[in-house]
């Protein structure tokens, strides 16, 4: 059992919590909590850290672990030190990052894609990922300036969808959108100045939604690449919706049209 | 100018930030930031506190204030002390609470209501309020155990909709739902066990959605009162959506149906 916060492994865990650079260099990320642990695809599980108290109280969870060499115990004090939450559940895992490539995402038969331009809020990205799985999104393309999907706050909001929804970060979002269009996927910019109400479009064909930053919306040079601009009609004095809310309305309209098709 | 954190007014502001009991006794709440200040209905504005720096830099905002007796200056240090945010904008207002009654909400001609059962997350309630205004919701009925709508975190997420969407807290949610139904408003429980997909219902008639708590959903005794249970069909392994997301999907489906009607 590791009992000191100056242990080299403990220091590394803290780095992995805080720094996306360290996560990406090692090709791993951290998840906390029983549910996130249970849903890890076995081949991606690198290491499981449990607190003393967790080890005492949740023996059956520990017994489920197939490869016991992956298990490491931390004193409660050390666990609290490495945890990202105020009241940790006592289980923290190192998980190998998923490697999706843009080509795979573009070749989905019933493509239903999100293209995220410079999204900054971790809670929004996590909520979008979780909702995307529920709405049947086939892949997410993310500009490299966006918040890191492996940020602990994103992970918490994804509720396990992080393991299942294909996503890819791209260096050049314009180039990626050109490829989306070249694959016969129709691109819609969600834009306050959109001429067409979102519910007047046909999303039963291959569809990608371009979604902008929380404060500023889509960058003009990105929005200009879209085949069509759409807007969500708004009542009252509301100028815009939260990015995760707007994206959800579009995703579930797509799911609705596809269910009711033919 | 108030320069001491032990000033009686400063102490009162801190109490108003932290305690819903104090807010409700005085019938006021606090808002921060220029946008929230600009949107306050004049008759509800009780007092405006600005920091020294704000007073120097944003003279035009201060000049817009009609009744200068409502203005009070705080040193930057004191302002930071009373502010609920890490990087305050330097303007904080005391606003009179709105008084809506249940009867007014029930008599809306095209009633589109939300009934919130024990909602706990301030961000969710704020986002629901903001989205509700955009989707044309006519009123929100909230169980008294729910998070306080005047909690500073709720206020921040509402983006000004707090001033415009009618809402009411009720002691007895069952009794309130009985009244909703007695007014000819059709009640739908958003429920994971709902038999009907939400998009197969007709929301052009008077409609109320019953929305449950983030962790546990609707209490059974509340869900049992609904005319119909509906669900949002979900793909993948997603068990449930975030409460604000699920509510938004229902509200915008209602808005869509009503726009496209007749």
Automatic annotation (TrEMBL), chains A, B:
Give all residue intervals belonging to the RNA 2-O ribose methyltransferase substrate binding domain.
30-101
The record's listing under InterPro entries reads: Alpha/beta_knot_MTases, MRM3-like_sub_bind, Ribosomal_eL30-like_sf, rRNA_Methyltransferase, rRNA_MeTrfase_TrmH, SpoU_MeTrfase, SpoU_subst-bd, tRNA_m1G_MTases_N
Plastid as a keyword?
no
Please tell me whether the keyword Disulfide bond is annotated for this protein: no
Instruction: Give the keywords, sorted.
Output: Methyltransferase, Transferase
The GO molecular function terms of this record are: RNA binding; RNA methyltransferase activity
Report the GO terms under cellular component.
cytoplasm
Q: Which SMART domains match?
A: SpoU_sub_bind
Q: What's a single GO BP term from this record? A: methylation
Q: Which Gene3D superfamilies match?
A: 3.30.1330.30, 3.40.1280.10
User: Which Pfam families does this one have?
Assistant: MRM3-like_sub_bind (PF22435), SpoU_methylase (PF00588)
The similarity comment for this entry is: Belongs to the class IV-like SAM-binding methyltransferase superfamily. RNA methyltransferase TrmH family.
User: What is the protein's given name?
Assistant: RNA methyltransferase
State the species of origin.
Answer: Faecalimonas umbilicata
Question: Top-down, what is the taxonomic lineage of the species of origin?
Answer: Bacteria, Bacillati, Bacillota, Clostridia, Lachnospirales
